[in-house]
Amino acid sequence: MNVYVGMSGGVDSSVTAALLVEQGYQVTGVYMKNWTQDLPGMKCPWADDLADAKRVAVQLGIPLKVYDFQSEYKQRVVDYMIAEYRTGRTPNPDIMCNQEVKFKLFLETALADGAEMIATGHYAVVQKGSSGDARLFRAKDVLKDQTYFLYRVTSDALAKTLFPLGMYKKTEVRSMASERGLATARKKDSQGICFVGSVGIKEFLGQYVTAAAGSIVDMQTKTVLGRHEGAIFYTIGQRHGLNLGGGLPYYVVGKDMVKNEVYVSRNLNHETMWRTTVRLRDTHWINGVPERSSLVARLRHRGSLLSCRYKDDILYLDNPERATVAGQSAVIYASSECLGGGIIAD
Amino acid sequence: MGERVIYLDYAAATPLDERVIAAMEPYIHGQYYNPSALYTPARQVREAYEIARHKLAMAIGGKPQEITITAGATESINLAIQGIVTRPDDEIVSCLTEHAAVVETAKQHAVRWAQVDERGYVKPSAVAAVITPATQLVSIGLINNELGTVQPIKEIAAVVAAKRQQRLEVGNETPLYLHTDASQAVGLLDISVSRLGVDMMTLNSGKCYGPKQVGLLWVRSGIALESILFGGGQENGLRPGSENVAGTIGFAEALSIAHAERKDESQRLHRLRGYLERELSKRLPDVVVNGHPKRHAPHILHISIPDCDGERLVYALDGLGVLAATGSACAANKGVRSHVLEAIGMDAALADSSLRLSLGRLTTDEEIMEATERIIQAAAQEKGK
Questions:
Q1: N or C: fewer beta carbons within 10 Å in chain B?
Q2: Does domain A273-344 fall into CATH 2.40.30.10?
Q3: What ipTM was predicted for this assembly?
């Protein structure tokens, strides 16, 4: 069986490739060259990452191809992210990258190239259901589980995907890498949005959006507490980077993109902060709309699993939840199975 | 594995010679004084520093006062070029196969590139062809650090001398100088500044078994350079900053050793390189030897192994205990094709399958025989991947 493995030059995808080689698959590594940007004072690490992927491919005795997805990635992931920020929402580019690039473009290109399956180093589990549908389950390693980022992948794509790491803990993956002497065994996990690199999101967005300074307003007293650099840069629930001085922390509880105002509160129990219904848009279901009544949902990666019901684009939470963020995703599970989800509308 | 690692990347870095370490030792552990200070221990340090300068000058046939100690070849090259061509429209002649330190500095000015042939060789006539009445500096390295091609510096010096003569006759007062980076040639080729006929020469301690981040620029007496750094006036104002005493003493020792051992060592490496070239050509029938077939450095072998990726070969060799380079160490890390191989118009596939093997003082006959086997093994593993 011909398997094309997405190799990023990180430890997870290195071990993924190694395991598949050991399991007897005919493995071809693929480095996806996605869009990156060179900013003054920062070096995009892609050249080093490609070199690491190549180093591991040589160790495993497998070919490594480079797929150049830069223009598609820019259009489908980066432009989407910038557009979402412009509307005041906080998007999740990793989810978009999986939906549009890894499990669409990469899959299609690999299949056309002779692959029968693709594999990635995601922490997730795919199992065939009774009707032959591919179903997505949370990984064994609950801290590393990446199904939150995978809920928009189609069942057809999952049917052609292997996630060899789904049944391992991250620590096990690291030690498997060391045992095999893989060049990436001690490499640090990547942090942040890959194409933004080590610069902050603010610096990145600052080049694409014209942000004007505006007021930071106390939600209750309506008094102006300070200035911000552009409402676009603030996310509901955020408490760092407000520069409002000492004392109890202020939290961002809302923003008005038209007035360019950011609303803050010290009162975590403020009514605007809590909600029991979450409206979703652009829902995606891996194998159809959930029919079970008792579900759990995750409103952010690694967020707690919240008991809920779902009907007609509305998520009904059993208990009120604080600071839901428009643009982020609500991912819905029936026990450990990821059913899909949607983007938090407001 | 578990076998001895064979180092074949001397063109990138050389190990410190034990004798160099011994010479530096007193200035690392005890004699820390600033040579510009007035008390006796500092004056002793000054004396040792000036003796080192003297030894450096001796090894290249120059005068001590013509030597400026720098922090390596890149700095020397920058000083040589920017010290002469000071305005953006000042004209310099070089070629695109030069080290990035030359190419990138030259690009800051009006540069005219001399044509290089597919062997990386710059014909003197090609240099003559691009020198105009406004050219102020010609900068060509003695050995191309990637291909190993040896440039005809003496003949280029004759071209420059002839152009100067012509200028004299027509009353053109624009000065014209010749700079060469001879860093790769130390201990291997004749680097006597008078026999080469150059006006300026760069050397790098880190390429000749001395400490890194030390180099020199030799400038023929009578040529005035503009300073590119400003500070306390050390090195006649050309390279301000407290002197790197231990480094300079180490460099002087390294250069003296290289100079003394040059003839034997050069022959020995030439023989080993020849063995490697012959064996690899015989046993890997499609191997292509790049560079100039005759005018090549004794220690650099640049080859292409078709259907193999050069970078993968390096990793495979790393796994087999041979440390080698693809193209030049700088280009390889950037994930882009070597500017040198591009400049000589090498076929992209051939460039991507290239390997630079460079030999040095610790390389033995046994190592070269063993390395040959490992290279053949790596090529077999990597073919078609």
A1: N
A2: yes
A3: 0.84
